[in-house]
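hey m, so remember when u said the tokens were messed up on ur end? i reran from scratch. heres the input so u can diff it against urs
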Amino acid sequence: MFEISSEANFSAAHHLINYDGPCENVHGHNWRVQVFVHCSELNELGIGIDFRSLKNALADVIKDLDHSDLNLVFDPIKQNPSSENIARYIFKKISALLNTGKCRVVRVAVSETPGNTAAYFE
């Protein structure tokens, strides 16, 4: 089994609904996203998944989050835009783009501040 990963960043604002503290106010973060893919075999070039394909898929998923109010993205799906929910959202979206018989997204980690990370996996 091979593990391939890529990371990207985006900037966005959010506020946590029903949170008792300063995060209930609108504020922003420079989010870091890491995507981990497992591939069971390599192609004829010795590649599990091309980094370019992984980076392009990640860029496609986070483009709708970048410089947005995340509450507007998560309100329609009835979720608080927490790091945990953002990780799950990205996991579902990028899995739909990348999962094949040979490769599958296994984990997405999201950091809103350095040293604080939430991850989603199935």
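this time it looks ok to me. The chain has one domain: 2-120. if urs says something different then somethings off w ur setup not the seq
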